[in-house]
Design brief:
Layout: E1 7-11, H1 15-26, E2 30-34, E3 46-49, H2 51-59, E4 71-72, E5 76-80, E6 86-90, E7 99-102, H3 103-117, E8 120-122, E9 127-133, E10 136-141, E11 146-149, E12 151-154, H4 163-167, E13 173-185, E14 195-200, E15 203-210, E16 215-223, E17 234-236, H5 238-244, H6 250-257, E18 262-269, E19 281-283, H7 298-315, H8 319-347, H9 352-369, H10 374-377
Parallel strand pairs: 1-2, 1-12, 2-8, 5-14, 12-19
Antiparallel strand pairs: 3-7, 4-7, 5-6, 9-10, 10-11, 13-16, 13-18, 14-15, 15-16, 17-18
Helix pairs in contact: 1-3, 1-7, 2-7, 7-8
Bound molecules: flavin-adenine dinucleotide.
Length: about 375
């Protein structure tokens, strides 16, 4: 199908929404992004974009071979929590390197590419619902304004307002895990950029450098049941963070000692959506498949979604068929990756004899561990 001149509304200006908007615009569609926030900004957090996400960013022309502001990773070091003893080193995946991005930088790259391509981006535009008509989607904004388009894409994140239109009301499940995130100034310019995953009973800390290694990104996750706030922007107390991870020594302990500002949120899980589309409206990114951050794949999956969506538009005779083909292709993949992230939630937090046994196994197979996930990193949605 030729989508040149067709109207699309994309709800949400996050990584998934902007990538989809850009991809559709590059095929000639008239695209409007409706973003509830008054500015496209994101504070202090990093993103690892593995080869399966990078291939889409390159195909869209968002980044070139140098990956712009991305920092090429040389792999991951697995450590034990007490003294930071190295358990194993995971090399660069065979599919190609992962890059570390400051989330604000990646959003900025996508935003600029979308604007250059002619996507209309409307900020402060919150969408309340999308109505289905035989030949159109009608998007209803909180302001009362209504927009008609041939197709609406809801990329409105893990707490999507639009998902219940297709799936009814679903109660999210609390995972009894709480994540703290912080960035601290760093001076690692002379070091080889690597992520560290430090594992202890019921807790783990992931850290990796950003930009020119002048920042260190930290995500610390603990099993805990007394905090159930889901939003990303709740401020935490750095001393509370340190107290909760006081047994973490070595490099993880050193970076936690430097945290001055921290946010925390409870991790909730919603299943991969049962219904992704109704012929005029489709879910994309976290709205369709929220995932725990333990495979670092949420944004990568959203990028894959964007490419598969336009490929379906290319291949199918109409919007309805294209959305059905998109759903059929994406749902099994999303389910597999989300399940892998869930499994890591358990693997990272082992205690007692299980932990020692797992570490012994990791020290042997660790260098080859990356290959276990070749099916994730080696997936090329653009092929
Ligand atoms: C701690 C942490 C670490 C992570 N690390 C990684 C990583 O290393 N690699 C990786 O690939 N992924 C990672 N992820 C996952 C990744 O951040 C998400 O999967 C990704 O941001 C999803 O993009 P999205 O566009 O679907 O949704 P979002 O980024 O949530 O964007 C949704 C947008 O929609 C807007 N919106 C919401 N409702 C409405 C509405 N009603 N009307 C209009 N606009 C609306 C929001 O304001 C927002 O801008 C991580 C997540 C967390 C929490």
């Amino acid at each position: 199908m030729n989508i040149n001149g067709l109207k699309f509304c994309v709800i949400g200006g996050g990584i998934g929404g902007l990538a989809a908007a850009l991809a559709l615009r590059q095929r000639g569609a008239q695209v409007t992004v409706l973003e509830q926030a008054s500015a496209l900004t994101e504070v202090g957090a990093g993103l690892q974009i593995s080869a399966n996400g990078m291939v889409v960013l390159r195909a869209l022309g968002v980044v070139g071979e140098t990956a712009e502001t991305g920092l090429r990773s040389a792999g991951t070091v697995l450590r034990d929590y007490r003294k930071g003893r190295v358990i194993s080193r995971i090399a660069e995946p065979a599919a190609g390197p992962t890059y570390y991005y400051h989330r604000a930088d990646l959003l900025d790259l996508l935003h600029k590419a979308a604007e250059r391509a002619g996507v209309e981006i409307r900020l402060g535009a919150r969408v309340d619902e999308v109505l289905k008509h035989p030949e159109a989607a009608e998007v209803v904004l909180s302001s009362g304004e209504r927009l008609r388009a041939e197709c609406a894409i809801a990329a409105d994140g893990g707490r999507s307002t639009i998902r219940p239109t297709l799936n009814g009301t679903e109660a999210p499940e609390f995972t009894h895990q709480v994540a703290w995130r912080a960035t601290i100034p760093w001076s690692g310019q002379s070091e080889t950029p690597r992520a560290s995953l430090t594992m202890g009973p019921g807790r783990h800390v992931v850290s990796y450098p950003l930009r020119d290694q002048s920042l260190m990104n930290i995500v610390a996750v603990e099993e805990r049941s007394d905090w159930r706030e889901e939003g990303w922007r709740h401020r935490g107390d750095p001393n509370d963070l340190r107290a909760r991870f006081e047994e973490f020594g070595g490099p993880a302990g050193e970076i936690l000692a430097k945290v001055e500002e921290v946010h925390l949120w409870a991790l909730f899980l919603r299943p991969v959506a049962q219904n992704w589309q109704n012929g005029r409206l489709a879910l994309l990114g976290d709205a369709a498949h929220p995932t725990l951050p333990f495979m670092a794949q949420g944004a990568c999956l959203a990028l894959e979604d964007a490419w598969v969506l336009i490929r379906a538009m290319d291949d199918q005779p109409g919007v309805t068929q294209a959305l059905a083909a998109y759903e059929a292709k994406r749902r099994p993949r999303a389910r597999q990756v989300v399940a892998a992230a869930n499994a890591n939630a358990r693997n990272f937090h082992l205690g007692g004899p299980m932990r020692l046994a797992a570490q012994a196994a990791l020290s042997v197979i660790g260098p080859r561990l990356g290959r276990r996930y070749d099916w994730i990193y080696g997936y090329d949605a653009t092929a």
